[in-house]
Amino acid sequence: MLKETVLKISHLLMVAMFTVTLLACSVPSMQQSSNPATTSESKPAVPTHTTTSYILAEPLPNKKLRISITAKEKSLRINNCNESITVALFEKDKKDVVWGGVSDACRSQDLIIPQGATLTFERQITESHFPINLNGTYRVGTALSYNPNLKNSEIAENLRLSNPVKLIP
Fold it and tell me: What is the pLDDT of residues 112-144, one digit of tens each?
């Protein structure tokens, strides 16, 4: 009889602890939503970068770019050298490369971004033989393909180049 009573009490205590835990977890979210100091209206606006291409470029201080490559409709292949992705800067409305990263001139197995996934990395834009115009507007590009034959890429140029971006000194 005593053992059954102890089991019932321990069972009730477990149910009570579970209920308290659930309530404790839900209370902060209710307080947060009712607190006017934490609403999105009081937060400073953060610029949102969007693009219709596969490549999104976001400027960072010290002439760095955060580059995100998203495989939208199907998987993408990226040419690389030992997992280092070479990118190039193009003037906004021109096809000539203004700046290009340097690789070891090797060709490793393609990096594959599965459909729906995004690969994000940062790249420092260093000085080259030609000075970078910090007032210029650029687009970032890299070798993308749907298939292993990068020379016959069926991806349109407007999908292989990023949104227009200005470098931040």
Answer: 999 999 999 999 988 776 778 888 999 999 888
Domain ranges in the chain are 2-42, 55-160
Distance CA 14, CA 18 (A): 6
- The total of other beta-carbon atoms located within 10 Å of residue 88's CB is 17
Q: What is the pLDDT of residues 71-116, one digit of tens each?
A: 998 999 988 888 788 888 998 888 888 888 776 667 788 889 999 9
Query: Comparing C-alpha atoms, which of 88, 92, 159 is closest to residue 128?
Result: 88
Exposed/middle/buried for 150, CB within 10 Å: 0-12, 13-18, 19+? middle
